[in-house]
Amino acid sequence: MRKAKKIFSLIFxxxxxxxxxxxxxxxxxxxxxxxxxxxxxxxxxxxxxxxxSKVQVKGSFYSDSIGQGSNQVHVMAMxxxxxxxxxxxxxxxxxxxQLKYNCPNQIKAFTWAPHKTICFARYSNVSFFGxxxxxxxxxxxxxxxxxxxxxxxxxxxxxxxxxMIEKARSKTGSLSNRDYYSTSEPILENHQTLYALMQCTxxxxxxNCSDCLQECVGSYDAVPDLRGTxxxxxxxxxxxxxxxxNPFIGAFNLTQPECNKNITARKIMAFVIxxxxxxxxxxxxxxxxMCRRRKTFPPAEENSTKSSLQYDLKTIEAATCTFSNSNMxxxxxxxxxxxxxxxxxxxxxxxxxxxxxAQGGQEFKNETRLVAKLQHRNxxxxxxxxxxxxxxxxxxxxxxxxxxxxxxxxxxxxxxxDWAKRYEIIVGTAKGILYLHHDSPLKIIHRDLKASNILLxxxxxPKVADFGMARILEMDQSRADTRRVVGTHGYISPEYMMHGxxxxxxxxxxxxVLVLEIISGKxxxxxxxxDDSGKxxxxxxxxxxxNGSPLELVDTELGKNYKSNExxxxxxxxxxxxxxxxxxxxxxxTIILMLTCNSITLPVPxxxxxxxxxxxxxxxxxxxxxxxxxxxxxxxxR
Length: 638
Prior knowledge:
Layout lengths: L1 H19 L18 H20 L2 E6 L6 E7 L5 H18 L6 E6 L3 E7 L13 E4 L5 H4 L3 H16 L11 E4 L10 E6 L5 H17 L8 E6 L2 E6 L16 H9 L4 H18 L7 H4 L10 H8 L7 E4 L3 E7 L5 E7 L6 H10 L12 E7 L2 E7 L6 H5 L10 H21 L3 E3 L8 E3 L5 E3 L6 E3 L5 E3 L12 H6 L1 E3 H17 L16 H10 L17 H14 L10 H9 L42
Antiparallel strand pairs: 1-2, 2-4, 3-4, 5-8, 6-7, 7-9, 8-9, 10-11, 11-12, 12-14, 13-14, 15-18, 16-17, 19-20
Subcellular location: Membrane
Keywords: ATP-binding, Glycoprotein, Kinase, Membrane, Nucleotide-binding, Receptor, Repeat, Serine/threonine-protein kinase, Signal, Transferase, Transmembrane, Transmembrane helix
Membrane topology: Single-pass membrane protein
């Protein structure tokens, strides 16, 4: 039975390799073969078969030799620091089977096996004890690429690797307790943790350990397929380097908070036998579906929500480690946003409505009514919600990069947005809003378009987020009135601010302001000039357009690395969007044509100045104004 478990575990390792899209290089030395019935083969089989029990008795490190002369076999086996003897023994058993499968007749071979812990096994016909070996290279890597936001944290990642090498080589003492082992958990710019481990075999000198790990880092930098992936392994016969966005088995489960047992379960799932994997996935899926309890809504809401989209509070608490501060992405007047990981390993963003929030339950209901209806590549997907007791929670897809304002308005990050990316963000945002206005099942006015509500995915593609202020119109309805103005100062259109009238053209105005911010790298809400000719980014842009110097608006961070005709066309389009009269502003479908078709002639824009509006006069007294700028400006759901 134990042998069958080892074989199944070994099979799973290879199934896993094929599933996650890794690239593997040889673990066998190209130094000769032995015959199946040779004395060397008999000795090898004998000593390898004894390794699991020897390690369990001797501890996490064991070395030995058997035979004489050319038939002598030298072996070494070890597990990472902190491994339980029984777990270490089982892992070494898997490693032995892996060596036999991969290198059935080679006289030298090694392997680093991840199975409930991380272990190492090696054999050779010559003694290798105390000597560093940096050939052959064994590597695996995930097919998922995170280069876009790993590059943003490049220095932090490099510092982390240097620190790990220094910590690993500094372990001294007798051979029995010299572990040459270090881990690191650097937090990337997108608030994700990258887990990493380095280890040398304990027979090396500190200098040899350092040299070997430097070779691992050099291979990581030199091999294009390895650099920028979400996880991978680089291994030599004398040292080992592994990294992953998820805490992997053996190395990090000892330090994970006990409040989230699902994380531990996910780590164990990563390396169980194949049939166990299938059963575990099915069990987790069924359990997750059972946890999402049905909730009865008033009749008016029954057609706009699906009970299968409701999450149980316990599921949310498990995914976020009971709303742990370590999982917090941001907070504001609305409440807090947390990153979570479900039992099926899918990542989510959890938006928790604060009990004191001025936004209240109505905006929350707006978002729940849109849960099952909005599906577009340029919109953040609302996955579901939770309403239990006083808790009102929205569950979103997790978008790995921050919101646009963090790249656009922070001097240290503006350089990451070249013109090509900014143009793509403009076009993608326009397509997302067009979907809301015309192509979604409902006609939706967002009413709070701004840079902090545009999220960026791993490839810096835009996703419109936060529908707490959104309003639904009848398909044949062109505008609506309200006595409560919501949104953010600087983005609100004149007719909405002054008269409480909103329409799709209100969103167009906000979009125009957003485009001017993207081009200039300046925030409209706190824009100031040294002279009195302009009091906002909009009037500043109009002044340069009127004076024939529109490119003076361009962010200096771009230098001259942009297409001037493309930039001028975007400025022209933006000024059409922020015109005083709603009827003069283009629709989103026309805007997209303006952006993507150079043969279309754009009309002459009119002055965006509005009597009283630009002077800061109060809106009409008959309208109650409540400008809500308390939404999460710092990392809304991602």
